[in-house]
Amino acid sequence: MQLHQIREAKAAKVTEARALLASTPQLSTEGQAKFDKLKSEITALEADEQRASFIEDMERKSLGTPVHKSQADMEGRVSVVEVMRAQMEGRSLSGAAAEFAQESERRTGRKAQGVFVPLAALESRAVNTTSTAPEIVPTIHRADQYIEPFRNNLLARRLGVRVLSGLSGNLSIPKYATGGTTGWVAENAALPTGDMAFDSVTMSPKHAGGIQEMSRQLLQQSSPDVEALVRNDLSFLLAQAIDSALIKGGGANEPTGVLSTVGVQTANLATLSWQNILAMLQKLDISNTSAANIVASTKVKAKLQGTLKAAGIAGYLMENGRVADLPAYFSNQVPEKTGTPNTGHLIAGDWSQAMLGIWSEIDLLVNPFSETAYSKGNVLVRAMATVDVAVRHPESFVIATDVAL
């Protein structure tokens, strides 16, 4: 049963038990047996409710399945390479690509400079030519054995960040700040007074993008491996920038990420120890929140794996991919703190409290007439996305910036 069905069933059983007691305050043997049965059923439903509530909460924190299945199906049928070919050849789009582009322009109220393609199509190299990518040309080469480059592990979208899509204007989300006060008073004394206060979390469009040069022949190849190659190129072009902004940001024209947000909690891990890790997580408990995971750089990962918890306590700070029984994620996307020497960041928190606002899907514009590219028979492909980042409750993150590397 779904959570709401379990709660409805439990409420019905409670009402039935209450009616039984009201009708017969002194229960007979038969009435007592009926009441005990209702009590057992209510207890079982409470256990079901706890399990269903836990699953629902975990699904909320994960990326989840898109609510609009038809929209997701349409996005999955959009071919990035076909969009580029259509622009390169000066013809109109057709099929899922045309349908998605029209729907995106209608939903955002803005006409794309090029063509909108779904951001999901790019979620996961300088000039790409058939000579630099021979493995994907449909000849005797083994396209299934194509050797991908090493890349930074992209984290933020995997951590359960809230994604707000289809935005148009600036966004302001109301937020509770402070509430009224209560207290104990003597007889005939005045009660304490206090007013509720509210704040807001704001988001506004910020633009990320880049330009790549690709050969006409590469885009004209019909192999599915070309589609995967182009998607991987463009995904790393934009996903790395968005990922970095979610984690840190704060630079010129960048969104303000978690590490740069005012109000996040801080901790001291200059001495990397089990007690200091527990003290770090305790700060979240005191703030009535909890950590969903641990995030750090790969250098910090090595330190955690090689540091014993303490004398007399078995095990290392990180074992089986977990720290303090929390899943741990590591990437070179997490920057070091500059100093003499540099130190590492370690972030504990609930990434469902971070929001990624999306104003536009990926806007692709193909330019076959750029002088440099034109002289070589190539085309320039520009990809842009408009997003912003905000944190609902900064106190839901605690950050150590002093991990010795």
Q: Short summary of the structure?
A:
35% of the residues lie in helices and 24% in strands. The protein is an alpha+beta fold.
CATH level-1 class of the largest domain: Alpha Beta
Mean pLDDT comes to 81
- Note the run of SSEs as H and E: HHHHHEEEEEHHEHEHEEEEEEEEHEE
Low-confidence stretches: 63-67, 124-128
Total tally of structural domains: 2
CATH architecture descriptor of the largest domain? Alpha-Beta Complex
- Separate helix tally: 10
Outline the structure in words.
By secondary structure, this protein is an alpha+beta fold. It folds into two domains: 59 residues; 324 residues, phage-related protein like fold (Alpha-Beta Complex), CATH 3.90.1690. The protein is 35% helix and 24% strand. The protein has ten helices and 17 strands. The strands form four sheets. Strands 6, 7, 10, 11, 12, 13, 14 and 17 form an eight-stranded mixed beta sheet that branches. Strands 1, 2, 5, 15 and 16 form a five-stranded mixed beta sheet that branches. A two-stranded antiparallel sheet has the order 3-4. The radius of gyration is 28 Å and the shape is globular. About 2% of the residues have low confidence.
Strands, helices and their partners?
Layout: H1 3-23, H2 29-61, H3 69-76, H4 80-89, H5 95-108, E1 115-117, E2 162-164, E3 171-178, E4 197-203, E5 206-215, H6 216-220, H7 224-247, E6 265-267, H8 274-286, E7 293-296, H9 298-305, E8 308-310, E9 313-316, E10 318-319, E11 322-323, E12 326-330, E13 336-337, E14 343-349, E15 354-367, H10 371-375, E16 378-391, E17 397-404
Describe the structure using short key phrases:
405 residues, alpha+beta, 2 domains, eight-stranded mixed beta sheet, five-stranded mixed beta sheet, 10 helices, 35% helix
